Each structure stands twice: as C-alpha cells, then as structure tokens.
C-alpha cells in the first residue's frame, strides 16, 4: 500500500498545473527540534536554508521558535516568531536616458504567526487536515547601494543617501492536506495545497512528500514543492519555483 501511494504522489508531481518555463529551481534544507512539555503543550525550534536561481544562489536562512497547544483531540493552536536573513534580488529601474540600479543585498525580516488547525481521519488511515494561519512580516529600513547610470553621458554615480524604507505585510495562509497515517509505518506520504492571501491570492504552493520515521526520536522528510506566484507586489515578486526539500526532526 505504501509503495502504491508513493507512486501515486510521484504521478501527481508530473501532473501539477501551471509549470511555467520561466520558473526556477531551489533547495530547502530544514532542521526541527521538538519538546513536549505535557500532553497538550509543545515547543519547537526550527531552522532552514533556501536556494534559488537553479540552486546557484542563496535565497535566505531563518531560525524560529514555535509553541503549540492541543485544544481538543482534533484541534490544535500554535504561535511563533521567525527571524529571516534574506538575499533580496537586484532591482533595475529604466528611464528615458537614465537607469537606477540597486544591487542585490542581504537584509533581515521579522515574522510573527498564529495558527488554528483541525484534522480528521476520514477513512481507515487517510487523514485530512485544514490549517488557517495569520502571519505578519516586517522588513526594517536599510541603507543600501543604488547607482544612477546616465546612458547618454556614459557615467555612473552612487546614490549614497538611498534608504530602502521599512515595510510590513499581513497574510492569511490556508492549507489543506491529506496524508496516509498508518501506525508503526516507516513512511507517511502526504500532499497539500496552500493559498497565500492578502486582499487577493498572491501565491499557491503545491507540495507532495513523505515523512520517514527512523526511531521514536529521529525522522526525516523528503518533498517536492511547486510555488505558483499570482498577484504579488512588483517589489516583492518572486519567480515560480520548483523546490526540493530535505528535513530532519528530533523529538526530545
């Protein structure tokens, strides 16, 4: 049964919609350490690294702290904070004869979130879950390089007073997931779709993968994710992405 489910998930990958030719590929490496305080309360420390530009460019690294509380057997709430160090891409603004060029740079972001998730075993080992998450991301203002290029005079000058202004953003993330949750099984295959909404659908993520249980304390995760960009601001727009993810989880 597990082999059939894995084959089915791989077939879903081949049929995912809107796989644009202009998309990029990247890797996500994740680490999570989880500690249960009691039957209801748990805390975790998470870190990850992401690449883009077909694995050639570092995109960001992050570290976060999360706490979750089981309100009922089928209902869980969680909240947390994540620090992100992001590699912002270059920006080129062309005029009639002058061009402004801001090189890529590294800068911090701060993210807060709160979630409510429900899950239900609909048949045998098939589990369906729905999670609604609010998140707020804040990018502090930062003094960065920006060059003014005069195409006519063939000159270039540094705009030494340029500051990229701070920016905050609220988003709602809705995730629907199905997984094959069988007791004492080594593999737990799953598939999910997640919508990022801020006045409009800005991004959709399709993910298929499996958790691999080694022991009660140690497990790994492997997954593929397609990120479909929709209505993001031009300043924050990312390309469509094909991500390949590997994660490790330790339960204390």
From TrEMBL:
Superkingdom of origin organism: Bacteria
UniProt protein name: DUF2490 domain-containing protein
Gene source species: Prevotella communis
